[in-house]
Specification:
Residues 53-304 form the G-protein coupled receptors family 1 profile domain. By secondary structure, the chain is an all-alpha fold. It contains eleven helices and three strands; from the N terminus they run αβααβαααβααααα. The chain has helices at 2-14, 36-63, 70-99, 106-139, 144-147, 150-176, 193-197, 205-238, 243-276, 282-307, 309-320; strands at residues 23-26, 103-105, 185-186. The chain has a three-stranded mixed β-sheet with strand order 2-1-3. The protein is globular.
Length: 324
């Protein structure tokens, strides 16, 4: 019934192409509407794990003085970004799956799109900052506290925040200037840029080109800087005489490499499938985009909690306290 009404609404609007829309409708996962309730179960589970894991990680870093180091401060920034990214889409998706709450105003849609993409850029930048932190700690350990002082860490955080906002503000303003008059139905579970732009009237070539350029710039430059940092780290580690020192270094960096892989691999797959995967079913494209925003925030605190002894010990202490 809900899908039928959405299609009727889209038909009515498409027959009046000069009408400016103030409300859009999100389909959810196109083609899998009958399975929405079942799909919502793992999505809800992932969101709950994200909330509990990231909030616990923030609490541990805040309450443990020994963790007030550059590496953990960057990790706390990453945790906040993960919380914002997942919260910007998951409650709305669950509303679609459970209550058929498909309607969303144009302004709310643009705000959601802005937060999703801006904070994705911020997360990419923070991964670069964390790679730089590991490079300084391993290659210049005696100068670590001198280079990464508190003002420098704050400045890096503000630069990453500013970059994300600055890159996404023009795109959002461009889209806000369009008239949405072709169809009120977005074939997606959240307001993803390429899905929204399909509803706009007029020439959208500049918006599409700008989006691809930003994605290529952020992904290309950031991944290059990360690769450079870890190339220098690898060179330094292989030069260590102690096998135990090499093992500890690889273990510390391994968690960061896992987080980087979880972020960039699904992100790149989602981006290129969305733009060039015309032969791939729509529900696969939407699921890839959803998982890109749900999986990294869920696994990041788990990976860091397992790999970093200080965090692991504090969490164990927290869990055991009520029973002691």
């Amino acid at each position: 019934l809900t899908l039928f009404s959405l299609r009727n609404w889209g038909t009515v609007v498409s027959n009046h192409t000069n009408i400016t829309l103030s409300e859009l409708h999100l389909v959810g996962i196109p083609g899998l509407e009958a399975l929405h309730v079942w799909i919502s179960i793992p999505f809800c589970f992932m969101y709950l794990v994200t909330l509990v894991g990231n909030c616990t990680l923030l609490w541990v870093i805040k309450t443990e003085p020994s963790l007030h180091l550059p590496m953990y401060l960057f990790l706390s920034m990453l945790t906040l970004v993960d919380l914002v990214m997942s919260t910007s889409i998951t409650p709305n998706m669950l509303g679609i799956f459970w209550f058929h709450s498909t309607a969303i105003s144009v302004d709310a849609c643009l705000v959601q799109m802005y937060f999703v993409h801006a904070f994705s850029v911020m997360e990419s930048g923070l991964l670069v900052a964390m790679a730089f932190d590991r490079y300084v700690a391993i290659c210049h350990p005696l100068r670590y506290r001198v280079i990464l002082t508190s003002p420098v860490i704050v400045a890096i955080g503000l630069v990453m925040l500013g970059r994300g906002l600055a890159l996404m503000t023009p795109l959002t303003c461009i889209i806000r200037g369009f008239t949405f008059c072709q169809d009120a139905v977005i074939s997606h579970s959240y307001c993803e840029h390429m899905a929204v732009i399909k509803l706009a009237c007029g020439d959208t070539a500049f918006s599409t080109t700008y989006s691809i350029s930003v994605s290529t710039y952020v992904g290309g430059v950031d991944s290059l800087l990360i690769a450079l940092s870890y190339g220098l780290i690898l060179k330094a580690v292989l030069g260590l005489s102690s096998a135990e020192a090499r093992r500890k270094t690889f273990s510390t960096c391994g968690s960061h490499v896992c987080v980087i892989s979880l972020f960039y691999i699904p992100g790149l797959l989602s981006m290129y499938i969305e733009r060039y995967g015309q032969d791939i079913p729509p529900h696969v494209q939407v699921l890839m985009a959803d998982l890109y925003l749900l999986i990294p925030p869920m696994f990041n605190p788990i990976i860091y909690g397992m790999k970093m002894k200080q965090i692991r010990d504090k969490v164990v202490q927290l869990c055991c306290r009520p029973w002691s």
